[in-house]
Amino acid sequence: MTEFLLELLNQGGYIGIFFLMMAENVFPPIPSEVIMGGAGLLVAKGQMTFGTVWIVATLGTVAGNLFWFWIGKVWSEEQLKRIIDRWGRWLTFEWDEFTKARDIFRKYGDGIVFALRFSPLLRTIVSLPAGLAHMKLWRFCLFTFLGSGIWNAILIFGGQTAAPLVDRFEKFAGYGVVALVLAGVLFYVYRVVTWKPAEAHERQD
Q: Could you give the number of structural domains in the chain?
């Protein structure tokens, strides 16, 4: 499984990593830890360079978040509510998560875009209230780039550092990759099954 992942990333190259990271932020269930960890292993093998992986992955993250930022900018909150009600189950977006991100954004301002890059649930959703608030584009891109850049660097470095252990315990490393992917799939299924429409959250308030 590890060799398959590395071959997949190697064949896709830097452009493939860019699009994978962009997709990870448009469709949250895709695990960035597997993508960046695998890229880190390729860096350790000398098949990719740390700096190039880091820049294309971070730019991909910014591009994915710009998709949601743009949606927040051109749609009203009422329109977003209808979209989340219709498609939120499959995107694993819940209305209360959006309102939570909106309230945090309003309370702490633009800088929270940077801080929430380290939150597994709110890092993508915060792009919507940032767009709704018409946050300056350059500030959104800057804070998203800085926050995701730190996170991506940690993941790449982790994969690079773990390379000797992966080579030594390749079979177990493969199981670890499978476990991460399965965990991502199971978490996605859990989110789909337990998803609630906006009205259910409003009744709880």
A: 1
